[in-house]
UniProtKB/TrEMBL annotation:
Family: Belongs to the helicase family. Hel308 subfamily.
Domain of life: Archaea
EC number: 5.6.2.4
Stated name of the protein: ATP-dependent DNA helicase Hel308
Binding-site residues for ATP, renumbered to this chain: 31
Catalytic activity, as annotated: ATP + H2O = ADP + phosphate + H(+); Couples ATP hydrolysis with the unwinding of duplex DNA by translocating in the 3'-5' direction
Length: 748
DNA sequence: AGTCAACCACTGTAGACAGCATGTC
DNA sequence: CTACAGTGGTTGACT
C-alpha cells in the first residue's frame, strides 16, 4: 500500500509544489517508514538508508513543513562546505513558497545576526558550533536540526564537534526535532538512542546495487551473477571500459594521487583507442580548454586537458577547487566518462557512476604501513554506484589477484557491516577545545555544569560513565588535567570552584583555534617580540598541528637541517639544545621550516609553477596553506593584540594579507583593492609605474594597457574601480616597507 | 662501444573544517 | 616500522 504525497498531512501549497515541481507523487519505502515514525510530526528520527533512497528529499520536506506549519527555523548541518552549497541549491527551489534559505560557512557569511531573517540555515558543523558560541537570539526560533552524514560522529576531530552541538543545544533548553541522516552506520540503534530519536534503517535502493569482486577474467557479484570481462589492459582499465562500452560511467578509487593520475592516463588511452565512439569529442575539447585555463599550474592544466580530451580525468586534493568543480560538472554531463580519484570524491558531493571500482582497498597510513580501509569507507564509495535516471543498476567492484583474496574481499567488504561509530570526545585535544568553548561561551562555570555538558555527549553514554566507576574516574581525571592545562595556559581562571575565561581565553574561543595551538602561539609570540620576521612568524604559524607539513625528502635533508641549525636561535619554541643530527627528532622542525620557507617564497612573488616544483607541491596544496594561514594568522594577530604586542599584531596582519595575495608589500594595495588584479597583474602594473589607486584613477585605458596582462576590458574596469574608490575613500591602505623581502638565505 | 633486459636499492604514500569587520547592490 | 609500486642506477650478456 503505497503512501501518496497527497495523503500526507502537509500544507496544500507544499503538496502541490512537490507533485508539480519535484514530480513526486508517492513515497519510497524508507520515506514511508520515516513518515510513519513521525518525521513530519516533529518526531526525532535517524535515517540510515542508502544514497538516493530519498532521505535528503524527505528531510527537505520535513524542513519546509517545519517552517510553514510551525513557523520555526530549520538548521541543516553538513561536514563539507561543498555539501552546504549543494544543499543550498537543492533548497533554493522552495523559495517560491516564500521560504528564505541561506548557507553560512566560514568563507560564505559570518554575521550571526544577519541569519535571523532566514527560515532554513545550512551550515558546516564547525560553523554551527561557532554560532552556538555566540548564542544569537534567534536560536530560540529553531524547531528542527538536520544533521547530514551523521556517521561523522566517529571522525576523530569532527565527531566531537557534533556532540558538542547537541549538548549545547540541550543546555540552552532548546528541544528541536532532530533528524540524523547517514548511509552507513554500524551502531545506528545506539546513535538514535543517544539522540532520543526513532530509527529507520533499510537497505532499500531505488536502483539496485550489486557488489562484487573481479578475479581475472570473471567478475562475480553478490547476487550470484558472474560475467566475463573483456581484457583491454590491466584489471582497472578492463573493468572501466567494460562499463563504458555498456553505456555507463566509471569512477576508480585509488589510494594515492600518483596512482589516480596513472589510472586516468590508462583510461584516457583506452577510450581514445577504442573503436566505438565513447565521447562527445567537441564537448570534451571545450571542457579540456576550460580546465586548462582554470588551472594556475600550466603543467597540471596541460596534463589534465590532454586526458579530458579523451573523456577521462583524475581528481584529488592537489587540484584547485575550481578545477575540481569543473571536472565534477563535466562528469555529471557525461563529457568525462571515467574518473580516477582519491577519497576526495568518496565523501564529497553527489557524483554517482554506474560502476565504482575500488582500485586499492589498502592504503598507507603513517605509523601503520598498508592498512585495509574501513568497511565504512568502502560502503561510502560503493554507495556512489548507480545514477538515478540514467543507470538501470549500480555496481561496486573490488579487485583480487587470487582465489583466496577474492573470498577474503567478500568477507571483508561485500558481506561486512560497517564499523561502529565510536566517540572521540575524551581525546585530550578535543576535550580541551570543548571545555574552553563551554566555559568561555558561558555554558558552564563550575564542575556541576561541566558535568551536565559532558553527560549529554555520545561519549558519556558510550563509555557508560554514569554507571561505570572506573571509567568515570579515569575520564574525569582527564577532564581535570585539561582544566589544569587551560588554567596554566592562561585561558581560564578558577576561584572557589568557579571557572571563567580570561580575555586571552575568550579570544581563543572566538577565533576557533584549538587551545594547544593557541598556547604555542602565545608562547611563541612572547618569545619573538622584538625579533620577529616573516620567516619566524610563518614558522610559528605553521606549527599548529592542524596544518599538514611539507615532507622533507631524502635528498634535501642536509639543506634543511643546515638551515635549521643556522636559524636555531631565531626560531620560536625550539628546544634549548640541538637534538642529534641523525635523529628523527630534527625532522618535524625541518618540515616546519620547509613549509614556512615555501610560504616565504610565495609572499615574495616566486612564480607559482617554479614554487610548486621546488617544494614538490601541487596547486591545491598551496591553496590549502593560503586558506589555513589566512585563518591562523588572523587568530595569531588577535592574540598578539590581546597580549599588547601591538607592533607584532600589525606585522602579522600585514603578513596575513601578503599570504592571501602572494605578493610583496609594495604592490599589495593594488591587489587588495582591485577586482581582477592578483599577484601577477599587480606586479606588472607596479612595474609599469602604477603604484597606487591614485595612479590608476588618474590614468587612461590606453596607458594602463601598456602593462603586461592588462587588456582593454580590464583597463576600463580598473579605472572605473579606482575612481570609485577615490570618491568613496574606501581604499584599504597598506603600510610601506615593513620588512625587506628576501628568501631563506636573507634570514640566515 | 653500444644496447638492453634483469635486478636491486631506494623512495614516497588521502583529505579539509574554523574568525572578524563592514559594506552593498 | 608496517607493504607496495614506481624509479633510477648498476650489472652483465649480447650484438
Amino acid at each position: 500500500m503505497t503512501m501518496l504525497i497527497a495523503d500526507l498531512s502537509l500544507p496544500d501549497v507544499l503538496k502541490t509544489f512537490i507533485e508539480e515541481k519535484r514530480n513526486a507523487k508517492f513515497l519510497y519505502p524508507p520515506q514511508e517508514e520515516a513518515v510513519r515514525r513521525g518525521i513530519l510530526n516533529g518526531e526525532s528520527v535517524v535515517m540510515v538508508t542508502s544514497t538516493a533512497s530519498g532521505k535528503t528529499f524527505l528531510a527537505e520536506v520535513a524542513a519546509i513543513s517545519n517552517v510553514l506549519i510551525n513557523d520555526r527555523k530549520t538548521i541543516v548541518t553538513v561536514p563539507l562546505k561543498a555539501l552546504a552549497y549543494e544543499k543550498l541549491m537543492d533548497f533554493k527551489a522552495y523559495e517560491e513558497l516564500g521560504i528564505r534559505i541561506t548557507a553560512s560557512t566560514g568563507e560564505y557569511d559570518s554575521d550571526d545576526r544577519w541569519l535571523e531573517s532566514f527560515d532554513v540555515i545550512i551550515t558546516t558543523y564547525e560553523k554551527l558550533d561557532s554560532i552556538l558560541r555566540h548564542k544569537p537570539a534567534w536560536l530560540g526560533d529553531v524547531g528542527q536540526l538536520i544533521i547530514d552524514e551523521l556517521h561523522y560522529l566517529g571522525d576523530p576531530e569532527r565527531g566531537p564537534i557534533i556532540e558538542s552541538i547537541i549538548s549545547k543545544i540541550k543546555l540552552l533548553g532548546l528541544t528541536p526535532q532532530i533528524i540524523g541522516l547517514s548511509a552507513t552506520i554500524g551502531n545506528a540503534e545506539e546513535l538514535a538512542g543517544w539522540l532520543g530519536a526513532k530509527l529507520v534503517k533499510t537497505n532499500w535502493r531505488p536502483i539496485p546495487l550489486r557488489e562484487g569482486v573481479y578475479l581475472r577474467p570473471f567478475l562475480s557479484f553478490n547476487d550470484g551473477t558472474k560475467i566475463r570481462v573483456r581484457e583491454v589492459g590491466d584489471p582497472v582499465t578492463s573493468l572501466a571500459m567494460d562499463s563504458l562500452n555498456g553505456g555507463g560511467q566509471a569512477i576508480v578509487f585509488t589510494s594515492s594521487r600518483s596512482s589516480a593520475v596513472k589510472v586516468a592516463k590508462q583510461l584516457a588511452k583506452a577510450i581514445c583507442d577504442s573503436q566505438s565512439r565513447l565521447i562527445d569529442v567537441e564537448a570534451a575539447s571545450r571542457t579540456a580548454e576550460e580546465v586548462r585555463r582554470a588551472s594556475s599550474s600550466k603543467l597540471l592544466g596541460d596534463e589534465l586537458s590532454q586526458l579530458i580530451r579523451c573523456g577521462a580525468s583524475f581528481h584529488h586534493a592537489g587540484l584547485e577547487l575550481e578545477v575540481r568543480r569543473l571536472i565534477e560538472e563535466a562528469f555529471r554531463q557525461r563529457i568525462i566518462r571515467a574518473l580516477a580519484s582519491t577519497t576526495t570524491l568518496a565523501a564529497g558531493v553527489n557524483l554517482p557512476a554506474r560502476r565504482v571500482i575500488i582500485g586499492d582497498y589498502r592504503r598507507y597510513e603513517a605509523g601503520e604501513g598498508m592498512v585495509d580501509i574501513p568497511v565504512m569507507e568502502y560502503k561510502q564509495m560503493a554507495g556512489r554506484a548507480g545514477r538515478p535516471g540514467l543507470d538501470p543498476y549500480g555496481e561496486a567492484v573490488l579487485i583480487a589477484s587470487n582465489d583466496r583474496e577474492a573470498r577474503r574481499l567478500f568477507d571483508l567488504y561485500v558481506n561486512a557491516e560497517p564499523e561502529n561509530v565510536v566517540s572521540r570526545f575524551f581525546v585530550e585535544e578535543n576535550l580541551a577545545f570543548n571545555l574552553l568553548s563551554i566555559i568561555a561561551s558561558g555554558y558552564a562555570s563550575n564542575m556541576n555544569e561541566i558535568n551536565d555538558f559532558l553527560s549529554n555527549t555520545l561519549a558519556y553514554s558510550q563509555y557508560r560513565i554514569a554507571s561505570n566507576v572506573i571509567q568515570r574516574n579515569a575520564l574525569m581525571r582527564r577532564v581535570d588535567d585539561m582544566l589544569k592545562f587551560l588554567i596554566e595556559s592562561g585561558f581560564i581562571e578558577e576561584s572557589n570552584g568557579e571557572f571563567a575565561a580570561t580575555p586571552l581565553g575568550l579570544a581563543v574561543n572566538k577565533t576557533y583555534i584549538d587551545p594547544y595551538t593557541a598556547n604555542d602561539y602565545v608562547r611563541g609570540l612572547r618569545e619573538l617580540n622584538g625579533k620577529a620576521n616573516n620567516l619566524n612568524l610563518l614558522f610559528l604559524a605553521v606549527k599548529s598541528r592542524k596544518i599538514p607539513k611539507l615532507r622533507v625528502k631524502r635528498g634535501e635533508e642536509d639543506k634543511w637541517s643546515d638551515a635549521l641549525v643556522r636559524n636555531w636561535s631565531r626560531l620560536p619554541l625550539m628546544p634549548p639544545t640541538l637534538p642529534d643530527y641523525d635523529d628523527d627528532e630534527l625532522n618535524p622542525f625541518m618540515e616546519e621550516l620547509k613549509t614556512a620557507t615555501m610560504m616565504l617564497d610565495w609572499i615574495n612573488e616566486v612564480d607559482e609553477d617554479a614554487l610548486l616544483k621546488q617544494y614538490d607541491a601541487q596547486p591545491g596544496d598551496l591553496r590549502m596553506y593560503i586558506d589555513q594561514l589566512d585563518w591562523l594568522l588572523g587568530a595569531m594577530s588577535e592574540l598578539a593584540r590581546i597580549l599588547k604586542l601591538r607592533e607584532l599584531a600589525g606585522r602579522i596582519g600585514m603578513l596575513r594579507l601578503r599570504v592571501k595575495y602572494g605578493i610583496k608589500a609594495d604592490a599589495l594595495e593594488l591587489a587588495l583593492n582591485l577586482e581582477g588584479i592578483g599577484r601577477t597583474r599587480a606586479r606588472e602594473l607596479y612595474r609599469a609605474g602604477f603604484k597606487s589607486i591614485e595612479d590608476i584613477a588618474n590614468s587612461t585605458p590606453a596607458k594602463l594597457q601598456q602593462a603586461r596582462g592588462i587588456g582593454p576590458t580590464l583597463a576600463n574596469s580598473l579605472i572605473e574601480q579606482a575612481k570609485k574608490l577615490m570618491e568613496t575613500g574606501r581604499i584599504t591602505r597598506v603600510p610601506r616597507d615593513e620588512e625587506p623581502s628576501g628568501d631563506l638565505s636573507d634570514y640566515l
